[in-house]
Amino acid sequence: MPPTEGQPRDITPADIPRILELEPVLFGAESWNRGMYREEFSLPDRAYRGIDAGGRLVAYGGVLLAETAQVLTIGVDPDHQRRGLGSLLLADLLAIAVAAGAGEVVLEVRATDRGAQRLYERHGFVAIARRRNYYQLIGEDALVMRLTLP
Questions:
Q1: Residue 94's CB: how many other CB atoms inside 10 A?
Q2: Phi, psi (5° rounding) for residue 2?
């Protein structure tokens, strides 16, 4: 049975074309390419999830599963932002990390992306460091944020 629309589901390689449509819109010069996603999807310590609306992928994210898990990416189609999909997807990724035995989760976020930072803060993440020029192609710093899991 397919997942309920609007609920997180596993991402598959068949989703790559849609993800590649969204990547440049969401991440510009820092977009991941087809090869990067194919590699990511093949790694056993990764979990990628997506959310559909209208029969189309509109949000996606991934987490590296380890004792210190890492949110690798979260993206929401601009036409579907501010509807709670990013929060739903993040909560799903965090639940997967907990189930895999992670004690904490870290992530990097653009220092100027206050919207994303607020999302992470609502889920309990706190900024712990700044990485200068982390996003080299756009010359932007990243904030490193961490969440200690229960």
A1: 20
A2: -70, 155
| 51 vs 28, residue with greater confidence | 51
Tokens of 107: 């992530």
- The residue from 48, 60, 120, 135 that is catalytic is 120
User: Where do the domains of the chain lie?
Assistant: 9-148
Q: Give me the catalytic one of 60, 108, 134, 135.
A: 108
Q: Which residue(s) pair with 24 in the sheet?
A: none
Catalytic (active site) residue 108: yes
Q: Which CATH superfamily is domain 9-148 in?
A: Gcn5-related N-acetyltransferase (GNAT) (3.40.630.30)
Q: What is the pTM of this model?
A: 0.92
Q: Is 40 marked active-site?
A: no
